[in-house]
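Need the bound structure for 3-methyl-2-oxobutanoic acid, inputs here:
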Amino acid sequence: MSITTQTITRLKGQRPIVAVTAYDAPMAGYADAAGVDLILVGDSVGTTQLGFESTVPVTLDMMVHHTAAVARAKPKALLVADVPFAIAHDDFTVLLEACRRLMQEGGAEAIKIEGDATMAPTLERLTRAGIPVLGHIGLLPQNFHQLGGYRKFGRKKSEQAQLVADALAFEAANCFAVLCEMTDAIATAAITAALKVPLIGIGSGVDCDGQILVSNDLLGLNAGYVPTFVKQYAKLGEAARNAFAAYADDVRNRKFPS
Ligand code: KIV
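Answer from helper R.:
Posting the output first, comments after.
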């Protein structure tokens, strides 16, 4: 049975939600066959697949293209797509058109938007228009050039209170779940306790209702930097390098084709 936004919301207090990113049909197929609950076509496609330094250069066309590829795997998992840089802050009709494209052309079943409590009225308009929204708080990678680097959020009491307020505002805007990135463990626990909808964490410790990881990180498929909170369940990058080297060796030594 396919997983819906309602399924995800109801999982709070039942069992931890398992979420990963995917950017193409084969990877979505592998994750779905493993029984994950939610697949996010994150704008991390920019850094993991497209060679950008941040998610800022990722465009709506790129997101629609990769979301449609993931949708072709026909996952049972809930398919969520990221609204890319700046669009959520544009005129509401521009944002609505972006969501329409991600859902109608890309096949997404929900969209994710980065922001804080000030974004809640916009998210409420979207949910009233029938667009399921996953709100993203804490570290907002689309603010890369403003942040000047990635850091933990919610270490200070004032930041903790702000994060709880952001999450509650998103819940009041009818988000079916909230995602928190790089929030301090104490802040994470406080947000989880305050929310009726699930909190899905990345780099935010154990006290969430679920976890999400970037698939390239968990598979060991990264060209360079791996965040310290990541657990690598495979070393596919190393396996690929070895396979290319063995192939090159065989061709040069006339062992392939045999
Ligand atoms: O784009 C992305 O992959 C994300 C992750 C932090 C979950 O937003």
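Comments: The longest helix spans residues 236-252. The mean pLDDT is 96.
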